[in-house]
Amino acid sequence: MSLEADSAGAEGAVTSCRDGAVLRITLDRPSQRNSLTQRMIETLVDTLADAATEDSLRAILIRGAGADFCAGADWLAANSADERRPRAGDLVRRIPHAAHRVIELIHGIHLPVVCSVQGWAVGIGCNLALAADFAVATHAAVFWEPFVDRGFSPDSGSTWLLPRLVGLVRARRMLLLGERVPATQAADWGLIHQTVDAAALDDTVDELLTRLAAGPTVALGLTKQALSLGQYATLNQSMTQELFNLELSCRTGDFKEGLAAFRQRRAAKFEGR
């Protein structure tokens, strides 16, 4: 699928466009607070998978159209078309290739991912922001994991992401009690990168994307990988991974440019290679 992917129609869309070395992805279903249909999730998977192998990309932005980021998966739409009870194991078969795959791609892709959040970030919408490398939100944004309030258990990485970001006690508050977390509190907890005034959101996100897209892309990707491994590896295992990553990053053009810039006492001009 092209990086200009578009899943249009009454069910909403996931659109993407290139802006230099940045891929800007928009969840476009504002009338439903950008809640994700199955087709939107599939398009998001395809778009991120394509981005993962596109050498000219250096950063990714995910944002919502309109007043909200994403109100989660649209379970009502998914279950209204067919009133028959799904066969046993239906969710187990489908979700690993849909919602769970989206989180895996955002978390594992060797490109920095930034989420621009306003309004509601709910369920998988919340987890998109948590899986990203940086989430910048307006002061009025709200993060919410309402799974148990709807009578089912969490998915899309909630039980893995939250304890690692905010600890078990706060994870229980969000997942077992369904507490809604205002963006300013989320920033204080370390759940997200920062909050800003609504008027400053776009400029703040663009400044961050510009900085990331100008960085040494290979080294950033390897660092992201090592941070992920370090969440469950021993110190020795992490340092072994760092060693292999260092060997790879030292063979890049950006490493040579970084040394040259240091010697010449100037800012480096990385090309992402």
Textual characterization of the structure:
The protein is of the alpha/beta class and 273 residues long. It folds into two domains: 1-214, Alpha-Beta Complex (2-enoyl-CoA Hydratase, Chain A, domain 1); 217-264, no CATH class. Helix content is 44%, strand content 15%. The chain contains twelve helices and nine strands. The strands form two sheets. It has a six-stranded mixed sheet with strand order 1-2-3-4-6-9, sandwiched between helices. It has a three-stranded mixed sheet with strand order 5-7-8. Strand 2 (22-28), helix 1 and strand 3 (59-64) form a beta-alpha-beta unit. The relative contact order is 0.11. The model is unreliable at 1-10 (pLDDT under 50). One of its GO terms (molecular function) is isomerase activity. Its EC number is 5.3.3.18. InterPro entries: ClpP/crotonase-like_dom_sf, Enoyl-CoA_hydra/iso, Enoyl-CoA_hydra_C.
List strands and helices in order, with pairings.
Blueprint: E1 13-19, E2 22-28, H1 38-52, E3 59-64, H2 75-80, H3 90-94, H4 99-108, E4 113-117, E5 120-122, H5 124-131, E6 134-138, E7 142-144, H6 158-166, H7 168-175, E8 181-182, H8 183-189, E9 194-196, H9 201-213, H10 217-229, H11 235-249, H12 253-264
Parallel strand pairs: 2-3, 3-4, 4-6, 5-7, 6-9
Antiparallel strand pairs: 1-2, 7-8
Organism: Mycobacterium basiliense
EC number: 5.3.3.18
InterPro entries: ClpP/crotonase-like_dom_sf, Enoyl-CoA_hydra/iso, Enoyl-CoA_hydra_C
